[in-house]
Amino acid sequence: MISPKDRFLTVYGRKPVLEALDDAALEVDKVILADTVRGPNAAEIQRAAKAAGVPVQRASAHRVKVLAGNGKQDQGVLADVVAPRMRSLHAALSDGRPPSRVLLLDGITTPANVGMILRTATAAGLDGVVVPRRGVAALDPMVVKASAGVAFRAPVLRCGSAREAAEILTEAGYGIYALGASARSSVFDVELPQRAAFVLGGETNGVGAEVGELVTEWVSIPMPGEVESLNVSAAAAVLSFELVRRAKAAGTTR
Q1: Where is the RNA 2-O ribose methyltransferase substrate binding domain positioned along the sequence (predicted)?
Q2: pLDDT tens string 163-198
Q3: Annotation: CATH topology of 4-82
Q4: Per-residue model confidence as pLDDT tens digits over 198-216
Q5: Looking at the domain 87-250, which fold is it?
Q6: Cα 45 to Cα 21: distance, rounded to the nearest angstrom
């Protein structure tokens, strides 16, 4: 059975929900409205949902807060938006054509960074970005906003944790490459196997020890200038388009 978390991106708050309903390119599965939301706000959302042919369900305010999973102001409304390229990591690896190059996020907790990484990886045509459900910023409206809406169609692969993902990928024959500022090997020179996963670590602590134990090789981005490190989303961009360059040089599409 496919988990809803592997099919939908949940957006919450009046404005994000109305924007999703108004976007003809998006498929909204349902809207859930707290029974405490009444009057003009409720009417506006119900009109927009009806115009888009989307069912509206009523639930308790507590239930909406739990489903939104944000701990912030959800304004009593959320929408489940279909993410057509999002699936579980297991499903992706069971495919007849499993991804050859994936990014694995480990401990990246800033929504802006997650959103920008999704945008960059999608632009670069990468096969997948593994976004664990634990230890990484939730795929919420802040991530969607940072991705400029690309998160809805990004090739997101879900699993429980970064460690779990690294184990699954290792068992499936992937080389695990982690970005680290002090690594001697360069992302521009390292030889890669047919299948490779690249770990991007958290903003403060980098790649965690649990994932580090499974790393095949550490790689760095050469920086001749007087800067110690790049923001993780900038590092992801450098890596993603180095993979584009390699694919182009090899005459492949990825």
Answers
A1: 10-87
A2: 999 999 999 999 999 998 888 899 999 999 999 999
A3: 60s Ribosomal Protein L30; Chain: A; (3.30.1330)
A4: 999 998 889 999 999 999 9
A5: Alpha/beta knot (3.40.1280)
A6: 9
Torsion of CA 161, 167, 169, 175, to 10 degrees: 120
The secondary structure element, H or E, covering residue 239 is helix 232-250
Return d(Cα 176, Cα 193) in angstroms, integer: 10
The residues pairing with 185 across neighbouring beta strands, listed in sequence order, are 219
Question: Kind and range of the H or E element at 82?
Answer: strand 77-82
Given a contact cutoff of 8 angstroms between Cβ atoms, the answer to whether 12 and 141 are in contact is yes
**Burial grade of 85 (CB within 10 A; 0-12, 13-18, 19 or more):** middle
Report the C-alpha gap between 141 and 60 in whole angstroms. 21
Predicted TM-score (pTM) of this structure: 0.89
Alpha-carbon gap, residue 111 to 147, rounded angstroms = 9
What is the Cα 169 distance to its own chain's centre? 17
Q: Coil, strand, or helix at residue 110?
A: coil
